[in-house]
């Protein structure tokens, strides 16, 4: 019989179609192959949609024979991200079936598709109950597994009695699962602790590792939830010690060992529980001391398993009341970990040492060289930790050596660590500088290496530092001049250098400075450099302000005539930048109308005392400056008055405050607090920052500090940032508080916030609140933005109670 | 442990075991972000990273990434051992396991995991016992499954 084409193939086609409908559905593996064979996402989707249609049909038809296969396929496509909710009911049916195959897939489906959010999940409770009480062991296992994976609180409450019964079953297979299911149940329904606490002590006598492990996990969970349970279980500490000791000394069984370490999972779990029980409890801690020492010294450290146990031991030693010698041993173990070739081990060592550096400082100090070596790590998360730890280890005796290392690191470190490194170095230098000159050098080096990454107050700090060290004025100005001559791009450096040259230009030109090579600088060069800064597109507006002021000051410091300076000042009278324009106008006026006062006004800054009363000098400076401009004297110190009095506050530029970086009369307070925080956990919980204002990319944030030594004092730092495309200029913030509080505003860091994340303005408010009255704060902001003047008055909501209680 | 994810170097999910209740949407989001983060890691980096408020422990075995999320007080090093033990179990069961085995037998991968961990905690530390339990369950499954013999011949003809 031949094949005659057309008719025959058409019949075959219909025949095929019929066959497809009654043929057994695709096997799971065939479907997977088909999906993997799809060349495009669209093709894959098509295959899956077609198959899902079949699966749905099959579910509708209620075919019990292939249901498990259909669900398995559905679970596969679910993993690929396709919807599978129509399979939920099928899970129920499969679980209720008596066939083991069905139950296996049904329970798996329940774990993957059902969860407490779906009401359907409760429907399996009954099946689980039946399986738990009447099923064979593998079935009981499935039910317990499912319950402990997705069991909701209601399910747990319902099924607790069943699980409790299973704890007493002879079969270890079921018991170990029941115990861990109990752990889950307690997590969901803490009241069930009372049900599962009693059997624990008895279970500890078991020898089966799985049961022991589960029991210890259960006890741990109970103790973490209830102080009463914790007290109760302290009595098993000797037993736990015994179990661990047996494990470590004689418990070598290949079945449970990894690389010669006996059941490290169990060891770690026991050690963890011991930690919880020994914490803050002398007696328990003493009971475990010897054992911990034993484990710490005898565990094989050639492979990760042993190191995992050792690590847990170290954590336990450090957390309980251990003998001093034991603590040192623990820190030394961490020190050895730092030398391990496995970088995972180095990671946990660095993390742990960081946690210990405050409490066991001298022990950790011994490992300083190794820590410093870790700065060279290629993995950024390791080098970051090494950096934090190194900074925490700086003290007065090692400061020179450490700074050298850290400075070297700063030069080559990855960009995201730069800012932290720079500010860390500066903070450490503040605390431990052996000499002022060293301090200045250090800051200078940081500014040259990572100027863009330093914090805003670095400039203020450095100028203050230099200002206060008369013997170093010549040295500073020379060094800064040289640095500036080489590079005018690093803004903080340029600002400080400009200020310094302005102040001490005469010393620069004298050329005498023993400490560095004499250099011949002539007036024209100095002026040219400052002019270059003024004109450079790299200079921020604030920087240019510094440069202009410096030029002005030089008019009284230099010998030659002032024509060049006058010319520059004159040009800037029509500068587009309003800040600069204002200054230039003022300085020009100084030349033209108040020349007799010029020398006095531009006199050198008096020596600055860090904690002394700056207010006088400041006021003197500003009063004189005030005679020039129409504006009111700055810094504004509005009386703490009714909230409505805000409008009485004088309008006006605090333009002259830029003469000088804001002298904070008591930087000591805020600084001391900050310095205590390098990498240690903050002692009193820090008050969260508060965003109080946002408009077109201009944002105002408040951060709060309550210095512990002065509970009535609240320091608020306002930070104004600008993420918009337009500069914010003439920014003034005024504040008012209720009568019972006292408010003092320090001079702001500036009045301009350049666009696109330029240098923010910060301002410090000091609020005295001795009666702990509820804090209320009203703010008035005025500024120019996008060629419009903006005024906003508002009361700050959501002030954290920690700011006044 | 809060969850364990297995995924390929192309970011395809091969197994997901969640021990905390989360919506499908949240699971997808977490999976997507975490896969991206882990795949971006360079080979010489350490196996631990901090992500959201969790610690992530991951390790690559051939073409598969094994990724676990643990809590702050959990021991990272022992988690590495957990991952390794799971891989050993798979290896013993499938005989030199490769990614394809886990793709085509994903339910088995789950069953094996469920004999090793329960509710996110280790339930059995003996490799032997875990494999024995799986073996017994497989046997039980075979015994109770019935084959639809009548259609097999038919299918083969075409």
From TrEMBL, chain B:
Residue ranges occupied by any AP complex mu/sigma subunit domain in the UniProt entry: 1-140
Compartment list: Cytoplasmic vesicle membrane; Golgi apparatus; Membrane, Clathrin-coated pit
Principal localisation: membrane
Molecular function in Gene Ontology: clathrin adaptor activity
Family annotation (InterPro entries): AP1_sigma (IPR044733), AP_complex_ssu (IPR016635), AP_mu_sigma_su (IPR022775), Clathrin_sm-chain_CS (IPR000804), Longin-like_dom_sf (IPR011012)
Keyword Membrane: yes
GO biological process per UniProt: intracellular protein transport
Alphabetical keyword list: Coated pit, Cytoplasmic vesicle, Golgi apparatus, Membrane, Protein transport, Transport
Membrane topology: Peripheral membrane protein
Top-rank taxon, per record: Eukaryota
GO CC, alphabetical: AP-1 adaptor complex; clathrin-coated pit
A Pfam family that the UniProt record links to this protein: Clat_adaptor_s
Subunit structure: Adaptor protein complex 1 (AP-1) is a heterotetramer composed of two large adaptins (gamma-type subunit AP1G1 and beta-type subunit AP1B1), a medium adaptin (mu-type subunit AP1M1 or AP1M2) and a small adaptin (sigma-type subunit AP1S1 or AP1S2 or AP1S3). Binds to MUC1.
Function field: Subunit of clathrin-associated adaptor protein complex 1 that plays a role in protein sorting in the late-Golgi/trans-Golgi network (TGN) and/or endosomes. The AP complexes mediate both the recruitment of clathrin to membranes and the recognition of sorting signals within the cytosolic tails of transmembrane cargo molecules.
PANTHER family noted in UniProt: ADAPTOR COMPLEXES SMALL SUBUNIT FAMILY
Family: Belongs to the adaptor complexes small subunit family.
Protein name: AP complex subunit sigma
Organism: Piliocolobus tephrosceles (Ugandan red Colobus)
Source taxonomy: Eukaryota, Metazoa, Chordata, Craniata, Vertebrata
Gene: AP1S2
